[in-house]
Amino acid sequence: MNLYHFKITYSTVLFTLIFFTQIATAQINAHLPTDTMQANTPAEKDLKKASLALFPSSYIAQYAGSIGIISLGAGWDYGRNNKWATDVLMGYVPKYDTERIKITFTLRQTYSPFSLALQDGLTYQPLRTGMYVNTTFGRQFWLSAPDKYPGNYYSFSTKIRFNIFVGQNFTYTFNSKSSFFEGVKFYYDLHTSDLYLISRVQNKYLKFDDYLGLALGVKLQIRRQ
After folding, report:
1. How far apart are alpha carbons 74 and 98 in whole angstroms?
2. Is pLDDT above 50 for 181?
3. 10 Å Cβ neighbour count for 201?
4. Is the Cα dihedral 125, 120, 60, 27 positive or negative?
5. Residue 199 reports pLDDT greater than 60
6. How does the average pLDDT of the chain come out, rounded?
7. CA end-to-end span of the chain, whole Å?
8. How far apart, in whole angstroms, are the C-alpha atoms of residue 13 and residue 21?
9. Is the pLDDT of residue 122 over 90?
10. In 10-35, which positions are buried (b, 16+ CB within 10 angstroms) versus exposed (e)?
11. How confident is the model at residue 54 (pLDDT cuts 50, 70, 90)?
């Protein structure tokens, strides 16, 4: 690992740790029943509600998904019945046959239009869909091809990937009303990227598993007060 890559990786990991530490601290403070945190007037209640909305409503761990072998992040659920979700994730890619590990960053938008109650505390969302944009840190990845390549040699960026996905959610809501977490959500996604779709159009012989991937994830949902 060269010095530049070490600085990028170290800074990214440090920023992520500080970011989620601050989130957790703020979330805990927001739930403490102290006199200074009590919202007695309508204005104070509105202010507290607005401040809580700034903090994530879930913590996320995901396996695979073309954003790293493992990714950690946070999400915001909103809209009627929390149909919409915006997530940010940092991913880890092992060295494999390259010289160094890689760190990725992902911004994801998810839409789950309806839910079905299966039994007490268990909910099923048969459709989960959306898109996400992903980038990989490192000098070897670029937005436009370096000058050493002939013009139009590469018509795509190696640094930015746009992805679409479809999957399903299973949510279990905890019975306790005092726990920090409200429930846990398990999900899976079938996904593909812009580059994979272009490859599929240009190469008819490709099979589904050549341009479709599977991601598995879990979201710990934070209780709002």
Report:
1. 29
2. yes
3. 10
4. positive
5. yes
6. 81
7. 45
8. 12
9. yes
10. eeeeeebeeebeebbeebeebeeeee
11. confident
Q: How many CB atoms lie within 10 A of CB 65?
A: 26
- Of 190, 223, 215, the C-alpha closest to 61 is 215
More confident: 46 or 108: 108
63-91 tens-digit pLDDT:
999 999 999 999 999 999 899 999 999 99
- CA nearest 74: which of 106, 52, 121? 106
Residue with tokens 């009303």: 177
Q: What is the 3-state secondary structure (H, E, C) of the chain?
A: CCHHHHHHHHHHHHHHHHHHHHHHHHHHHHHCCCCCCCCCCHHHHHHHHHHHHHCCCEEEEEEECCCCCEEEEEEEEECHHHCEEEEEEEEEECCCCCCCCEEEEEEEEEECCCCEEEECCEEEEEEEEEEEEEEECCCCCCCCCCCCCCCCCCCCCCCEEEEEEEEEEEEEECCCCCCCEEEEEEEEEEEEEHHHHHHHHHCCCCCHHHHCEEEEEEEEEECCC
Structure tokens of 145? 């091809």
Buried b (16+ CB within 10 A) or exposed e, 171-188: beeeeeeeeeebbebebb
Q: What is the pTM of this model?
A: 0.78
